[in-house]
């Protein structure tokens, strides 16, 4: 369809230049490239078939558009395994696009070929060869079309567009965002970057212009067998249904979204991020590239130093920023801008900003929040180039910081002794700023909107992040009551920390285990310092994300063993890899999904990549002493899935030649698992409830979507009833039920959970002492009565009101 040529079935991992020339087209996803030879012929190389669906996963371009290349130069490096697993074929067409004046002559027969070997040669076309000439004259006929192809107009649809015009004499173009290309040129169409949902204009001029436009529009609107789906109307309505406040409420209570719970009293201090001025013009390509490389090396060293001294969420975020600093796309974009005459700083900004804008415009709440990480990285490198650092904020005691937005590095630089709370106009509940604030125990609200700007500097504030509101200019009585509550909570925390080493029992002697959720060795050390009795959830994603290949069995074993050693024999429940959806891994080809939360994620990824699942189980069984680690399966929906995992466990355990039982449990995150808990408990060794995902699935609300985040509450009666059903189902078979989701760290929820039959709570490490102290003050009889009352409530708000009365 594209032209004459050959197909290569690759056994290596690099595409090389077939001739001297200039790179004229490089697809954004890195899977296809066109080289213009010195004599005007265009050679298109397309790695694999339908690889546009991989969205760049596994492809690393070595060149940029405009680069001059020599025969044999590397053009694109690629992960052959990712291509083979994620595409229908790795066969790579090498095609002479229809170039007037040239034809191909084969230089050898089919068979094995080495890089650098001649496959075909170019020859002048025979005299008088037909050449398509577009008609001119007449009025222009236009039609606007919305592209329904899931992956846009890539190589194959571009060829079909051209073929559809055979027989028409009209001159036809496609235009997008002010740029146009001939519809008869597949390469020209590729340069437009036409994606799913883009609005394009089909225009023609000539005697049969109307017929040509109609035929081409019909072809594009048909989807060509690659039709995607538009977002459901309900999604759009949900976003539009929450208008932002324009004035402060009459009662002074400004609603927001909880990013980190807590209560604080203080005064408003406004923070505004100053833009860094950058000279757009460079002083020379070599000099500016050298400045950029030196600044990048300096920042890399700083980030590595920060990572060594950080722990938990802070360390994970710093390491993620360090990985972004090596991103080939960003580095290539900056280098291209510098070659175009930009200064080092302007080149870096030109590379970062389009990526950040694309993330914000993606429609995915979690991806939009990641734009802040890119802007943070941009700012830090620009500061290095300027030879300065951000001026530390000098803030008075009892500051509640108000900002349009905050970057992660700025939050980490705040003086925790003076800042008692944060309120942000923008942001979301799963941003890195939110994660950091929670790890720091800093009450934080996000998404308050522009109305926050109406709060005057120095105004007295009560920030109740637990109730998701900021009380502006409260009266003296409200201030006094809030200060007293803050003091009482602090006193309780101090007493709880002092008694944290004791084994946790309720006031009537009932044993309740209080564990900690972990994601690193540093988390384990913090958990032990706070009296955790083990780990109810080890998130193993920290080993698998932000890297190019999966960790080896030895690497996994070493990390799990290090955490087990810190726990000193205490139970360590290891959750099998839980990625997909909002947590993709670049080396696992998971195609784009319309509903990622309902797609290939959790244990489904393990089933799709069985070697990955087996390797992880093998690593867990290698931890000494055997049995300290228990295995937990995420995103279970039925007994059949549990049986598949147990079969793998038994096969791997047989290789170890040991008879000791290794406990295998399930993570109850789906309504399906909750209502069939009795069936699961008949074959599982324990059940642990992930209340974050269970809540989003029960309420049909995406917890990564800030537009609905304010309505998501794990104390909703529907969620509590599922927890109750899970505990009942487990008890029928003598299995214990734990909670490792956010509710286990919520003091209002803990008495209800215990009353519903939960006997193990796995909380964030910092709050373990408070949870243990709370549990030790309860009796099982009172907790059961309280839980029964909660199950009769009609709304989450009623449950929380009841819970506040109970804890008071």
CATH topology of the largest domain: TIM Barrel
What is the CATH homologous superfamily assignment of the largest domain?
A: Phosphoenolpyruvate-binding domains
> What is the averaged pLDDT score?
83
Q: Which stretches are poorly predicted, pLDDT < 50 over at least 5 residues?
A: 126-136, 229-243
Principal-axis shape equals globular
Biggest β-sheet: strands ordered side by side in the sheet: 16-23-22-18-19-20-21-17
Report the CATH architecture of the largest domain. Alpha-Beta Barrel
Radius of gyration: 30 Å
Name of the CATH first level of the largest domain: Alpha Beta
Report the total helices. Answer: 28
Strand content: 15-25%
Spatial separation of the terminal alpha carbons: 74 Å
Subcellular location: Cytoplasm
Family: Belongs to the PEP-utilizing enzyme family.
EC number: 2.7.3.9
InterPro entries: Dup_hybrid_motif, HPr-like, HPr-like_sf, PEP-util_enz_mobile_dom, PEP-utilizing_PTS_enzyme, PEP_util_C, PEP_util_CS, Phosphohistidine_dom_sf
């Amino acid at each position: 369809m594209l032209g004459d040529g050959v197909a290569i079935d690759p056994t290596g991992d690099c595409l090389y230049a077939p001739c001297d020339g200039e790179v004229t087209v490089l697809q954004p996803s890195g899977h296809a490239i066109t080289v213009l030879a010195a004599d005007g012929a265009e050679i298109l190389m397309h790695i694999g078939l339908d690889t546009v669906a991989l969205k760049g996963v596994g492809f690393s371009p070595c060149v940029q558009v405009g680069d001059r290349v020599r025969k044999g130069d590397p053009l694109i490096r690629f992960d052959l395994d990712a291509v083979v697993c994620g595409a229908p074929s790795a066969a790579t067409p090498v095609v002479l696009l229809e170039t007037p004046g040239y034809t191909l002559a084969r230089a050898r027969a089919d068979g094995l070929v080495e890089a650098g070997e001649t496959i075909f040669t170019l020859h002048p076309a025979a005299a008088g060869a037909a050449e398509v000439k577009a008609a001119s004259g007449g009025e222009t006929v236009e039609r606007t079309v919305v592209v329904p192809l899931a992956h846009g107009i890539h190589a194959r649809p571009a060829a079909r567009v051209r073929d559809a015009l055979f027989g028409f004499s009209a001159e036809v173009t496609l235009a997008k965002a002010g740029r146009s290309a001939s519809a008869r040129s597949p390469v020209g169409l590729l340069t437009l970057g036409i994606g799913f949902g883009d609005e394009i204009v089909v225009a023609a001029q000539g005697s049969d212009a109307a017929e040509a436009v109609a035929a081409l529009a019909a072809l594009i609107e048909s989807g060509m067998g690659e039709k995607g789906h538009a977002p459901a109307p309900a999604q759009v309505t949900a976003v539009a249904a929450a208008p932002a406040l324009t004035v402060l409420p009459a009662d002074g209570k400004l609603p927001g979204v909880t990013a980190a719970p807590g209560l604080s009293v203080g005064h408003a201090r406004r923070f505004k991020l100053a833009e860094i001025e950058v000279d757009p013009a460079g002083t020379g390509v070599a000099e500016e590239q050298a400045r950029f490389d030196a600044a990048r090396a300096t920042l890399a060293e700083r980030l590595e130093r920060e990572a060594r001294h950080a722990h938990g969420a802070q360390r994970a975020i710093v390491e993620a920023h360090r990985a972004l600093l090596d991103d080939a796309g960003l580095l290539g974009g900056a280098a291209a801008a510098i070659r175009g005459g930009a200064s080092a700083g302007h080149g870096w900004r030109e590379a970062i900003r389009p990526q950040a804008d694309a993330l914000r415009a993606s429609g995915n709440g979690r991806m939009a929040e990641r734009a802040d990480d890119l802007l943070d990285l941009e700012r830090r490198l620009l500061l290095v180039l300027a030879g300065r650092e951000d001026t530390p904020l000098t803030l008075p005691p009892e500051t509640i910081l108000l900002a349009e937005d905050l970057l992660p590095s700025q939050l980490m630089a705040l003086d925790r002794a003076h800042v008692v709370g944060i309120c942000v106009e923008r942001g979301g509940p799963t941003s890195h700023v939110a994660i950091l604030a929670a790890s720091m125990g800093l009450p934080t609200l996000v998404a308050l909107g522009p109305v926050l700007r109406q709060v005057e500097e120095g105004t007295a504030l009560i920030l109740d992040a637990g109730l998701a509101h900021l009380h502006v200019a409260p009266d003296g009585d409200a201030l006094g009551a809030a200060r007293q509550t803050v003091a009482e909570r602090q006193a309780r925390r101090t007493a709880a920390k002092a008694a944290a080493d004791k084994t946790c029992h309720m006031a009537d002697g009932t044993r309740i285990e209080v564990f900690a959720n972990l994601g690193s060795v540093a988390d384990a050390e913090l958990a032990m310092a706070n009296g955790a009795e083990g780990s109810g959830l080890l998130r193993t994603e920290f080993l698998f994300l932000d890297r190019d290949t999966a960790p080896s069995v030895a690497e996994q074993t070493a990390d799990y063993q290090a955490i087990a050693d810190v726990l000193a024999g205490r139970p360590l429940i290891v959750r099998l890899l839980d990625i997909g959806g909002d947590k993709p891994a670049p080396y696992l080809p998971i195609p784009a999904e319309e509903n990622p939360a309902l797609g290939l994620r959790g244990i489904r990824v393990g089933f799709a990549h069985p070697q990955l699942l087996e390797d992880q189980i093998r690593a867990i069984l290698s931890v000494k002493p055997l049995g300290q680690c228990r295995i937990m399966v995420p995103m279970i929906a039925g007994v059949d899935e549990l049986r598949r995992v147990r079969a793998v466990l038994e096969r791997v355990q047989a290789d170890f030649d040991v008879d000791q039982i290794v406990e295998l449990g399930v993570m109850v995150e789906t309504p399906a698992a909750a209502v069939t808990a009795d069936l699961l408990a008949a074959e599982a060794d324990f059940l642990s409830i992930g209340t974050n995902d269970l809540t989003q699935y029960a309420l049909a609300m995406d917890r990564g979507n800030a537009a609905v985040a304010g309505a998501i509450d794990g104390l909703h009666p529907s969620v509590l009833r599922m927890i109750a059903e899970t505990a009942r189902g487990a008890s029928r078979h003598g299995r214990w039920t734990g909670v490792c989701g956010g509710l286990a760290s919520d003091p209002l929820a803990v008495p209800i959970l215990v009353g519903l039959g939960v006997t193990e709570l796995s909380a964030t490490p910092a709050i373990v002492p408070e949870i243990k102290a709370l549990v030790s003050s309860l009796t099982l009889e009172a907790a059961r009565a309280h839980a029964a009352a909660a199950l009769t409530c009609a709304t989450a708000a009623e449950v929380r009101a009841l819970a506040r009365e109970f804890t008071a």
